[in-house]
């Protein structure tokens, strides 16, 4: 089998060890995925070419771009993978052909759909964020901190007001904290430590130099960050927040007055009761 590009040294590659017939449902599908992936690693590469085809029909020029697959090879085994959403037949320059259909259609561009968990994992792998052992933890953390939630009725993630406000605020301040390339650089440096290409103290010193100005900007421009977040949230009134958890916990970002930490019980989308907490200024 061909070795993979990524190895977090957490465990040996998952591979089939026996032929089984006593599985059904999701267990059967999972085992089939493992077997097909292993056999695909033992197969030849698929052969194809991304091609632009220019054809003349009734003195009109038509252009189409797509993928010409010449040899499917591992694609015959690994049915979950496909090279392109638009495959075209194999053409030879100067070849004449008869079109099966001629029609005029209209359409409009569409916004991309929300990310599913599989889409998110694929993008994290693309940017080198997380390992096999930590990707699930990262996704759970995003939901625990309520930056994103799973949309009702499906497995897609939808950003919350908090998540959108943070990303927008960071962008307005010129901070790259929310960009995948930023985390990717950090992960790459940590990987270099594990591989012995860099020393720990060198990486720590480098990233202290990167993060210190970021923290300084967040503190110095905190009012601007709060102002950006105001676009996504309604002002909190003290009428429904009666129970005080801690007095004078912080200072207000607007008037610098003392703020109390309060709590209340509220219903979630699922109808469950959940405790909520909020900081409320005693002045404004």
Describe the protein.
Helix content is 35%, strand content 20%. It is built from 8 helices and 7 strands, in the order H-E-E-H-H-H-E-E-H-H-H-H-E-E-E. By secondary structure, the chain is of the alpha+beta class. The mean pLDDT is 85. A 3-stranded antiparallel beta sheet has the order 5-6-7, with no helix packed on it. It has a two-stranded antiparallel ribbon with strand order 1-2. It has a two-stranded antiparallel ribbon with strand order 3-4. The chain has helices at residues 25-41, 74-77, 117-127, 135-144, 161-172, 180-195, 200-220, 222-230; strands at 47-57, 60-71, 148-150, 157-159, 243-251, 258-267, 273-281.
With strands numbered from the N-terminus, the spatial order across the biggest sheet is 5-6-7
Radius of gyration: 27 Å
> Which overall shape is indicated by the principal axes computed on the Cα atoms?
extended
Largest sheet: 3 strands, antiparallel
Provide a count of the helices.
8
The structure class reads alpha+beta
Number of strands: 7
Intertermini distance: 66 Å
Helices and strands, in order, run as HEEHHHEEHHHHEEE
Low-confidence stretches: none
Look at the structure and give the mean pLDDT.
85
The fraction of residues in strands falls at: 15-25%
Helical content (DSSP H or I, runs of 4+)? 25-40%
């Amino acid at each position: 089998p061909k070795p993979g590009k990524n190895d977090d040294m957490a465990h040996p590659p998952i591979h089939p060890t026996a032929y089984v017939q006593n599985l059904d449902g999701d267990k059967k599908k999972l085992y089939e995925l493992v077997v097909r992936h292993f056999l695909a690693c033992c197969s030849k590469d698929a052969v194809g070419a991304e091609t632009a085809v220019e054809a003349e029909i009734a003195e009109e020029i038509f252009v189409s771009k797509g993928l010409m697959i010449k040899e499917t090879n591992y694609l015959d085994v690994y049915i979950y993978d496909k090279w392109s959403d638009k495959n075209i037949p194999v053409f030879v320059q100067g070849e004449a052909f008869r079109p099966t259909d001629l029609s005029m259609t209209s359409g409009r561009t569409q916004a991309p759909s929300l990310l599913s968990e599989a889409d998110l994992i694929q993008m994290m792998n693309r940017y080198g964020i997380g390992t096999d052992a930590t990707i699930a933890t990262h996704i759970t953390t995003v939901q625990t901190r309520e930056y994103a939630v799973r949309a009702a009725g499906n497995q897609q993630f939808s950003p919350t007001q908090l998540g959108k406000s943070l990303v927008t605020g960071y962008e307005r301040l010129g901070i790259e904290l929310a960009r995948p390339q930023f985390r990717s650089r950090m992960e790459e440096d940590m990987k270099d430590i594990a591989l012995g290409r860099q020393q720990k103290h060198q990486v720590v010193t480098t990233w202290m130099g990167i993060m210190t100005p970021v923290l300084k900007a967040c503190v110095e421009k905190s009012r601007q960050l709060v102002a950006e977040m105001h676009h996504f949230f309604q002002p909190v009134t003290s009428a429904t927040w009666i129970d005080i958890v801690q007095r004078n916990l912080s200072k207000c970002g607007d008037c610098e007055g003392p703020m109390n930490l309060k709590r209340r019980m509220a219903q979630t989308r699922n109808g469950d009761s959940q405790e909520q907490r909020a900081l409320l200024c005693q002045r404004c």
